[in-house]
Every structure is written in C-alpha cells, then in structure tokens.
Write a structure and sequence with these properties.
Lipocalin; 12-stranded antiparallel β-barrel
C-alpha cells in the first residue's frame, strides 16, 4: 500500500465515503480484514453484494425442517483506515432485503452497522495479535426455524481478540487467522459468542484463495429471543486487477445451526486500496 501525506487524508476519506454510498454492497464481511493492521495513512474498502435463498431451516434441536420460502439480498461495505501504526479504524454500513412467503415476515432497510477500531497487541514479521472493539447499531434480525419472525436487535458492543500467522505451504505464501469475540446487547438481550477462522493461500501472485468459517453462538435466551446458533462456510477467490483494485467471487453455506435458516448463495465483492 502507498503511504499518503496527512493533508491528503480528508479527501481520501470523502472519496471512500462516496464510493461506499454508490456501491453500498455486501461481502463475506468482517473476517476479510482479520487481525492485520494497516499502515498509517492507508485504507481499504471492500464492497459488493450477496444473495441467499432456502426453503429449509434448523429448528430448536438443530434438525432440518421445511419452512416458508426465504430469500435474502445483502448490500454492505467494510471500510478500514490506518490511523497510526498501532491503530486501525473501521466501519461497516449495511443494507438488507429479506423476502419470505410468510405474512409480516419480510423487511427492507438498514441492517446492523458497526463503527470501531483495532489495536495492535503484538506484531512480528510473520505474526500479529490484535484487539478489536466496535459499537453496532440496532438492526432487524430474522429468526427462522419453525416460527418465522422479524425482530429488532438493540444496540450492541462487540469485543474480540484476533491472531494471524503467515507461513509457506508447498512454497506458496499462506496465512491462518482466527478471531474470538463476545457481543453484548443493550436492553438485557442475550449476547453471543463469535468464532471466525480464515485460511488464505496465493497459488499465483495475483490470486488469493480464501476458506472461511463463521460461527455465532447465543449465550442465553428469553421469551423474545430464542437461542440461535449458526455455522457457515465460505469459499472464494480474490483476483488482483492492479495495486489498488481487486475482485472477489465466492459462495457460502450454513451447514449447521439452531433456529437459523440453512442459507446458501453467492457473493461478489470489489476491493479498493488507497
């Protein structure tokens, strides 16, 4: 990434904001950036769109059952900016369109969006450990698994520790990154554990292959919020078009869960580095 002078930062951030408003798209989300921190004065935007559809869901016992037709379009973005060598700022606005055949169980609007920062704890030439914290705005959440309903989640605070290791696999550059986090919701809503793992490898200098595992586990439940768990796999490849631009294409699949839809669908993302 190219280092920018301080007086260029406001213009770059405005340009980044305009770019996000135009594309306002979805990607496989927060695990793409991982534990790494950006150099001061540099940044990246990951933007794209995704689609998922299913007619099956995992019930309260984790068994697959038929449910009302379910389709979801996601539009979101992930923005990072290196403020110092030990601090990276981040934001992730998002927008969802969810349609089902159930009455009063569809939505179109802003989903939960995050504003936060990542702080370096330890860093070597091949390893990095960091701490990330972020505030998440209220957003609609669809509970699926036998009693479909749309509810509004309260504001939340997300805290997680991240670690990444670079290495070579059969002479090819690769990395393994893991995140462990806890999400705290306001208004006494049940919190969640989050465990995400990413493996990446470059078969050629221009192509990055990503295998990702996303896990969310409810810590408790109440009358409005049943216990909900999902385990997702995502496979994608990122092609570098230039030093600044990359394109990502992939898909994801929910292979296990509790009170969660069995989502399956593709996503397409555009990466911009500045």
């Amino acid at each position: 990434m190219l280092t920018r002078h301080c007086h260029e930062v406001p213009l770059r951030l405005i340009t980044a904001g305009v770019f996000v408003c135009l594309l306002f798209a979805e990607t496989s989300g927060r695990a793409l950036a991982g534990a790494y921190l950006l150099d001061p004065g540099t940044g990246q935007i990951i933007a794209g769109l995704g689609f998922a559809g299913t007619t099956k869901a995992f019930d309260a016992k984790g068994h697959l059952i038929p449910v009302a037709s379910y389709k979801k379009f996601e539009l979101a973005s992930y923005i990072e900016y290196g403020f110092t060598d030990w601090l990276t700022l981040l934001a992730s606005p998002s927008l969802d369109l969810l349609k089902t055949s159930q009455p009063n169980a569809s939505l179109w609007g802003t989903d939960a969006s995050e504003l936060g920062a990542r702080v370096k704890l330890s860093r070597t030439d091949t390893r990095v450990i960091s701490l990330e914290a972020g505030f998440i705005s209220p957003g609609e959440q669809f509970i699926q698994g036998g009693s479909e309903s749309v509810l509004t989640r309260a504001m939340a605070f997300d805290l997680r520790i991240l670690a990444a290791q670079n290495f070579e696999l059969a002479t090819l550059p690769a990395f393994l990154e893991a995140e462990f986090g806890r999400r705290f919701y306001a208004q006494n809503e049940p919190g969640e554990w989050h465990i995400d793992v990413t493996f990446g490898i470059r078969p050629t200098p221009e192509i990055l292959l990503l295998l990702q595992n996303f896990n969310s586990i409810s810590i408790s439940s109440n009358l409005n919020w049943p216990s909900q768990t999902y385990n997702k796999l995502a496979l994608s490849f990122v092609t570098d078009l230039s030093k600044q631009w990359s394109v990502q294409l992939g898909g994801y699949y929910t292979f296990a869960g509790i009170n969660a839809g069995r989502e399956l669908g593709p996503f397409l993302s555009l990466w911009y580095r500045f």
